[in-house]
Design goal:
Keywords: Membrane, Transmembrane, Transmembrane helix. It comes from Kushneria avicenniae. This is EpsG family protein. The protein is mostly helical. It has one domain. It has 18 helices and no strands. The protein has helices spanning 3-18, 27-44, 50-57, 69-72, 75-88, 91-111, 123-129, 131-138, 141-155, 160-171, 181-189, 200-220, 239-256, 261-267, 269-285, 287-311, 316-336, 338-343. The longest helix is centred in the last third of the chain and has 25 residues, at 287-311. The two termini are 24 Å apart.
Length: 352
């Protein structure tokens, strides 16, 4: 067993342990330290697939005057990582420092007592081992960072200006983050989905933003580098697996809502948005690109769905059982897909 796999299992154990807790505790600081050490092990254990390219691109001295449109339109990551590498002069440490940035934002967004107080405690360690996030920090790195910026906009920002700022950071980290723009708008005008009704004007703005979003996602798929297209080298075809997850979540939510379509839509706006958007992009973008859109939508949908699921059960035993089943479902693909499991058993650094 590699150290990478061993510490991944430790975090899985923590996710199950936190299923028994209801309130925020100081133990989350210990979890943060363990997650930080785990990510250090990940970075020193080998670069796989796209991460080989990310490590290599750190050495490129990018300049706005000479860089191609691809790098300029996603300058937050490309230029930020390049400048950071120029200071550190080590690819492993540079990527780990970037890991610490998104990890800190993730823990704050999910662990603060204000905006994310309704998100169950177990979600915090669970997100680190959740299969789509594993794919993020092991392979599709910019998508992961963009997702964390969006999560912070949803759960960590206390005013619209800060939320908008992190939304822009997400957009210019990976342009496909525009997929969240209409959802962030509705989230803002309904005060975190707490207002039951949306005015006709806001519905019109949402529809306009949705059309802009669809055009933007399609444009972002036309990249001019090796990262502009999804790599199929992982050997994992997850487009329909993600779709199955979305439909499974919708079935659970529909049953919990006593088979009421009105309740289902009202309490699961994010899930409905994600399913409709994902299905729309599969024929337009093809499997590989749609797969990454599915990953990004699933990461942001999961905490909201977990909070709704937790509120649906009254007794502590019911909550614990559903939490543990949810954790099992979220980490199972890591062990079911051999190529995903191979991320955790890379013993030595691959040449970049």
């Amino acid at each position: 067993m590699t150290a990478e796999l061993a510490w991944y299992l430790v975090l899985c154990g923590l996710a199950f342990f936190y299923c028994f807790l209801n309130k925020r505790t100081a133990l989350i600081a210990i979890t943060y330290v363990i997650a930080a050490y785990y990510l250090w092990i990940v970075r020193t254990s080998g670069f796989d697939y796209d991460m080989v390219g990310y490590a290599r691109y750190l050495t490129y001295n990018l300049d706005f005057a000479t860089a191609t449109t691809y790098y300029i339109r996603e300058f937050v990551y490309w230029f930020g990582a390049s400048y950071l590498y120029q200071m550190i002069q080590d690819d492993v440490i540079t990527l780990w420092v970037i890991d610490m940035i998104w990890l800190t934002l993730l823990f704050y967004a999910m662990g603060n007592r204000h905006l994310s107080s309704k998100v169950p405690m177990y979600v915090i360690p669970f997100l680190i081992v959740f299969f789509p996030l594993l794919m993020g920090y092991q392979n599709v790195y910019r998508q992961l960072i963009a997702c964390v910026f969006v999560l912070f906009a949803f759960f960590g920002a206390r005013n619209l200006m800060v939320a908008g700022f992190f939304g822009l950071l997400a957009l210019f980290t990976h342009n496909a983050a525009i997929v969240y723009m209409p959802l962030l708008y509705i989230f803002a005008v309904t005060n975190g989905m707490t207002k039951p009704k949306v005015s006709f004007f806001h519905k019109g703005v949402f529809a306009f933003l949705y059309l802009v979003m669809m055009a933007g996602v399609y444009y972002s798929s036309l990249g001019d580098s090796e990262f502009g297209k999804s790599s199929s080298s992982t050997g994992i075809s997850l487009t329909y697996a993600y779709l199955a997850v979305f439909f499974a979540m919708s079935i659970v939510a529909f049953v919990i809502g006593n088979f009421s379509l009105k309740k289902f839509i009202h309490h699961n706006t994010t899930l409905v948005y994600s399913i409709f958007t994902f299905v729309a992009f599969i024929p337009a973008l093809g499997g590989a690109q749609a797969e990454r859109i599915g990953m990004m939508l699933l990461i942001v949908t999961m905490p909201i769905f977990a909070a709704n699921l937790d509120r649906s059960f009254k007794t502590q035993n019911e909550k614990i059982l559903m939490r543990m089943l949810f954790v099992m479902a979220g980490i199972a693909p890591t062990f079911l897909f051999s190529s995903a499991y191979n991320f955790l058993i890379t013993a030595a650094r691959l040449p970049g």
